[in-house]
Write a structure and sequence with these properties.
Helix content: 25-40%
Order of helices and strands: EEEHEEHEHHHEHEHEEHHHH
Strand order of the largest sheet: 6-7-8-3-9-10
Structural class: alpha/beta
Strand content: 15-25%
Bound molecules: adenosine-5'-diphosphate, magnesium ion
CATH class: Alpha Beta
Largest sheet: 6 strands, mixed
Distance between the termini: 53 Å
Number of strands: 10
Number of helices: 11
Number of domains: 1
CATH topology: Rossmann fold
């Protein structure tokens, strides 16, 4: 039997398609029977407890880590069947902002952003200069910061430079691992606006690991929950909140979760479970 998935005549294959994923480290099983799908143009928030396997899933989709079993297709291509060269090409179509070490601390802002472009091979200096300055502008920074070192930048600016580097090659897919962790609410909100703007400008598909409910509510088309080694649901936030699972109940129906859910527009709020509409204590800070 042919078990390849089929798509409607006009439907493009998903941007990302993970089927039957198994990931083991020695005796420890991180993912088992995991399915995950992302369509073009989506912004998926990936949530789950600490150690649930969010970063490991992203690293496998990026080809930085191999699955123990199962298939991962990115932009229509099965990662396990790619030549070294094609794997590099696929990676160049993805940008990534890692959780830690967003920048090389010994390199200037300019060199950090230039690095993925330089890796492609020789690019004339004038062109490289223009490409990097354009990226600095695209992430809302002034080009006068180009020669600064990361240590001289604020947390919010470092994230912006990290995004500039992630979009240096104008990727189709953008992966963000806890991008607003450690940012104050103001910087988080600005970051959300930046991502929303870049998504429109570059027609990006985004997968974002995040704990930040406000970021999730304002940006994502769907929320994927990683628990029990699987993606247990991947749906609009209001539908996720209806799923009867201990992690979901605790995370989305606790006070912070309820505050985020209650900020949804009325037509989405109408689909929430009753428990989500319970009043939020006034002292719950952002
Ligand atoms: N290279 C590795 N070797 C062994 N265990 C690992 C490795 N990477 C991750 N793990 C384990 O896999 C599990 C999931 O980790 P991770 O994907 O980082 O979780 P999350 O990002 O959801 O917090 C954890 O138990 C972690 O210890
Ligand atoms: Mg992680």
């Amino acid at each position: 039997m042919n078990s390849l998935p089929t798509y409607g005549a006009n439907a493009a294959p998903p941007a990302i398609e993970v089927r039957g994923l198994l990931k083991r480290y020695g005796p420890a099983i991180v993912h088992e029977d995991l399915d995950f799908e992302v369509r073009h143009g989506e912004v998926i928030s990936l949530v789950g407890g600490s150690g649930a396997g969010k970063t490991t899933l992203v690293r496998q989709i990026l080809g930085l880590e191999s699955p123990t079993a199962g298939t991962i297709r990115v932009l229509g291509q099965d990662l396990s069947k790619l030549s070294e060269r094609d794997a590099r090409l696929i990676r160049a179509r993805s940008g990534m902002l890692f959780q830690r070490g967003a920048l090389f601390s010994a390199m200037s802002v300019f060199d950090n952003i230039a690095q993925p472009i330089r890796e492609l091979g020789h690019v004339p200096p004038d062109l490289l200069h223009d490409l990097v300055m354009l990226k600095i502008e695209m992430v809302g920074l002034s080009t006068r910061h180009a020669q600064k070192m990361p240590a001289a930048l604020s947390g919010g600016m470092i994230k912006r430079v990290g995004i500039a580097r992630a979009i240096a090659l104008e990727p189709e897919l953008l992966f963000l691992d806890e991008p607003t962790a450690g940012l104050d609410p103001q910087a988080s909100e600005e970051f959300v606006e930046l991502i929303a703007g870049l998504r429109r400008a570059l027609d990006l598909t985004v997968v974002m690991v995040t704990h930040d409910l406000d970021t999730m509510t304002s940006l994502s088309t769907r929320v994927a929950v990683l628990a029990d080694r699987k993606v247990i649901v991947n749906a609009p936030l209001e539908q996720v909140a209806c799923v009867d699972h201990p992690f979901i109940q605790e995370y989305f129906l606790g006070a912070r979760g309820r505050r985020a859910l209650q900020a949804l527009p009325a037509h989405r709020r109408a689909q929430l479970p009753e428990a989500a509409m319970e009043p939020v204590p006034a002292d719950i800070a952002r």
